[in-house]
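To the team - flavin-adenine dinucleotide complex, inputs and output below.
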Amino acid sequence: MVNLDYYDKIVSIDKDRKIVVMQAGIRLHDLGLKLKEHGLAMPNLGSIDHQSIAGAIGTGTHGSSTKHGLLSQSVMGLKIMLANGRTVSCSAEQNQDLFRAALVSLGALGIVVEVTFQVVPAFNIEWSQSLHSLEEIVEDWNKDLWTQKEFTRVWWMPYMKRVIKWRAEKTDRPEMSPVANWWSGRLGYHTYHILLYVAQWFPSLLPKIESFVINVQYGFKDGAGSTAIQESRTGLLMNCLYSQFVNEWAIPLNKGPEAITRLSNWLNGDEEASGIPGSSKGLYVHAPIEVRVSDTSTTTPRPYLDNTVPDSPTLYLNATLYRPYNQDPPCHKRYYEAFEYLMKEMGGRPHWAKNIHTVTREDVHNMYPNMNDWIRVRNEVDPEGMFVGDWHRRYLLPSDNGKPVLPNEERKVKIETARAGGVDWTGHIPSKPLSPQGSEESFEMMHGVEAEKSAFE
Ligand SMILES: Cc1cc2nc3c(=O)[nH]c(=O)nc-3n(C[C@H](O)[C@H](O)[C@H](O)COP(=O)(O)OP(=O)(O)OC[C@H]3O[C@@H](n4cnc5c(N)ncnc54)[C@H](O)[C@@H]3O)c2cc1C
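Output:
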């Protein structure tokens, strides 16, 4: 395990061309603060800014806007330290194969040590959020729901059949803080948490809890809501509340109304209309289900493992389930089986950094026409498997039938239920030294790659 938390400096900023070069361990939060000093900002953000830039790029992290693709869309170049300790550069122009593999690398190619990124002038956003019926959102789907403002996301409350529509646009107006109310602060946070915890034993309370919490916080009438003006660095983020399972899939945006209607039917007990096998009887889920978008149809070159839709906008459905006080919710296996069945029917692909339940290696290979390109590049740059873990073997690399395939690959030893919820995972890496020949070959095989000294030297 390599930790780049202290490898987090800005290497250079070209203010005129708005290009920043940074060490790959920098957290998006710190990056945002540094950029602000120069009147610059990230073009888009996901829900949080705790991630490192390398982690966000390496897993296909996205925000919610049809005017933007993945966060990695703005990556101009990467420097990667390979298993042999040498550092190589790649970009759309230089060693494009490695670049496409590294844009969603899942940590399996080498250590990304430096990122060159296209940023934008700092901007404020004016956002508003309001309550609407689910029906209204589905009706507006193909009108201007996703295009009227630059940034749009929707939180769907499955039992109320209502949504909160959050939209934001760039503005020159000065900041205006959101109106604080007693419920949206600590009181609301702890009350919802305790109610979710109680529902671990009495899940049928969840529809009432959903209705209570949303009505108290957002108002009882459709259209009720709030507004504010904030710098993009903070305004684009959202409070993710508690520890959670997240099961998020990317599907074509035009499949949204069908997917949402069918899932709504299933969750509300109309299994026949949902077309989803399996009963939802006695199953109750948490709110909200997150509904977001991106558009990568003009992105070039595309990451080999890009999970978005190549020729039209992408919709992300995120079936969030909280883990109240770190306890797994009782329904999660049955819910995720049904949800993943639907997502597969919609031609979806799961988010690389989130929870999956029924997905197999065969599924993943069928979902990614460029999988063999990614594997080829990976095997070239790391033939001994220094960066291969059990997860990569399970979902991406050919089955090993339980036998070691690559000499330095990490193997699973055991998985145990953790006392605080979740699991403790133990692995083993053979302490075999790198064969100088194999690692040198890995470097030589990267034709056209520029050899550089290690970034850590
Ligand atoms: C609360 C929460 C909210 C989130 N919101 C969103 C969201 O809005 N949109 C979205 O798309 N995703 C979201 N995510 C997912 C998140 O963006 C990813 O999990 C991201 O990878 C986390 O970054 P990290 O720095 O913690 O990476 P890690 O979890 O440490 O690593 C993630 C992967 O990247 C690899 N990696 C990390 N650093 C390097 C490096 N230097 N070189 C090579 N490989 C590397 C790791 O090996 C691993 O495979 C969210 C996650 C959480 C926990």
